[in-house]
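Q: Hi! First time doing this. I have a protein sequence and I read that you can turn it into a structure. Is that right? Here it is:
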Amino acid sequence: MELAALGARLRAAGLTARSVAAWAGTAHPPALRARLQAGLPTGAGPATSALGLLVGGQAVPIESLRRWSTGEPPLDEMLAAAGIIDVIDAQAHARVALLPLGAALIVCDRIDAVDDREQVPWPDDSSLHLAGAISPRRVTRWLDVGCGSAVAPLLHPRRADELLALDVNPRAVAYARLGAALSGRTELHTEVSDLVAAVPASWRGTTELVTFNAPMIAAGGAGAIWRSTPVDLLAALVAAAPPWLAPGGEVILHGSLPALVHALEPAGGERVLVRYTPASEADGFAVAWWRPQAAPRWSLVERLLRAARPHVEAADRPT
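A: Yes, that's right. Below is the predicted 3D structure, encoded as C-alpha cells:
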C-alpha cells in the first residue's frame, strides 16, 4: 500500500493541526496530551470520532470512519493494512497516535500506552525547541541523532537532499519511518543506531548538519530508554560528531544547560548557547549551535519565552 497516499487522504479528510485545535482546543502536543488525559473532547459526528480514534486512542465504530472519509478502498481497511488500527467487532482501535504538526504526521505511542522501556512519547517542548532552532538554509546531508519519532526532520521538509534519522530504540525508528512515509518524505531514512554507529562511511566529512535532542534523565535512571540513558550521552555525541562534519558543518543541540556547558566548554570552535529558562532556576535548559571548525568563540545568552514565541527559534542564535 502507498503510505503517502494514505497520509494525503487523512489530511484531506481533516487530520490537520487546525482541525485538532478546533476539536480539543489546542494542537500543541504537550497541551493536547494534558487535555486528552483529563478527558476526551465530547461531540458528535464522524470528525469527532476519527480524531478521537487517531489522536486520542478512543475506540470508534468503523462506520464513522467511512463517513469521515469516503472513497475506495475504505479508510479503515487502509489504516488496518498500515498497522495503525485493529478492527474488532466493527470497532476500530488505534495501535498508535497520529499527531498532525505542520504538513507532517507524527507517529508515537498512545497517551494510555504502557510506560515500557521502548516507549515513544508524544513530542514535548524540548522537541519543538530543537526544531525551531534549525534554520531554513538547505543542506546536502543532515544527520538527526536520537530522533525519537523524528519530529525535527518531519517539521523541516525540503531542508536536506539526504536526511538520516537514528535512534537506539527500534520502536522509535519504526514510528519515524512510518511518519516519514505518511508525510511523503522520500529523502528521510531511519536506522537503529547507538549514537552515530550506523552512519554510512560515505557520510564521513560530508554532513553539513547534525542535530541531537538529549534525553531527559529520570531520577534513578530507570524506565523508558529516553529517560534512562547515561548522563554523559551529550558529551559522547559532542566527541563523536566532528569526523562526520563537512567543512563549516554545524551541530545543533538541546539539553540541560549544565550538560551542554560540560560537553562544549572543552570542545573548541564556535559555541553559542541560548538559555530559555529563567536565571532563578538552578539549572535550566538551552539550545546550542556548535561549529567545531570555526574560530573559537563562547557566547551564552538568555531568551525569555512568551506566549507569542513559546520556543527557541533560529533567529535567536547569537550573531
